[in-house]
Write a sequence for this structure.
């Protein structure tokens, strides 16, 4: 059975801090790893990673994949209160684009 | 970019009634769409894969006769929760993959179903 594990489960930081969210996986027929941000509604897409060692960056967010050690990290620098959300890691497997989600990391950024 | 529209966003129904949720891909054709369910403070659980023109593929433990999926066209998939019960109350989200070999899945805004 495909498994995606995220840590920590929840995190409270002060505005301006840097955070690192972790995602490890054990799946068959890996295709890609995706990060999503979920606030009150459906998840919004952040990054899609398919190759090891190549950092993807968007503003204060960045992510990297290690396919040998089967994990990915999502970094957020200079956090803001608007970054408060649940961050979901998902692994895409097979040819049908099926996603298996981790349980998510609930991030709260306080003033 | 790819946009997925889901309707309704919120529905309250009485126990025993059926509810239909629509998922549309607005600017692309989706041969495959996915239906997820999310309970409070839990992650998304895949319910079924909806295939245009053929039967849906259900995940283990999901009753196909209770959660009817119809993918009648390349832009529309529907999920009908039949004879809904309070334990079916949840957040239902559809997703579809954009065109291109490595397109990420994009999600609809979800439907919050409350069964009283």
């Amino acid at each position: 059975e495909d498994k995606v594990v995220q840590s920590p489960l929840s995190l409270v930081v002060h505005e301006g801090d840097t955070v690192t969210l972790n995602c490890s996986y054990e799946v068959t027929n890996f295709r890609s790893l995706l990060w999503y941000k979920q606030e009150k509604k459906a998840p919004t897409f952040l990054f899609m990673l398919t190759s090891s060692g190549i950092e993807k960056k968007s503003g204060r967010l960045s992510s990297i994949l290690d396919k040998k050690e089967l994990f990915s990290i999502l970094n957020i620098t200079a956090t803001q209160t608007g970054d408060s959300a649940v961050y979901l890691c998902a692994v895409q497997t097979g040819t049908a684009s099926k996603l298996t989600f981790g349980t998510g990391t609930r991030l709260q950024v306080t003033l | 970019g790819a946009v997925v529209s889901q309707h309704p966003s919120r529905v309250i129904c009485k126990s025993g009634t059926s509810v239909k949720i629509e998922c549309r891909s607005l600017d692309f054709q989706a041969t495959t769409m996915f239906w997820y369910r999310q309970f409070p403070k839990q992650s998304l659980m895949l319910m079924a894969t909806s295939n245009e023109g053929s039967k849906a593929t259900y995940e283990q433990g999901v009753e196909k006769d209770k959660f009817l999926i119809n993918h009648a066209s390349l832009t529309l998939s529907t999920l009908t929760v039949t004879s809904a019960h309070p334990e079916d109350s949840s957040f239902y989200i559809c997703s579809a993959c954009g065109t291109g070999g490595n397109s990420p899945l994009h999600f609809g805004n979800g439907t919050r179903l409350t069964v009283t």
User: Anything to note?
Assistant: Chain A has a mean pLDDT of 93. Chain A touches chain B at residues 32, 34, 36, 41-45, 48, 50, 88, 90, 92, 96-104 (CB under 8 Å).
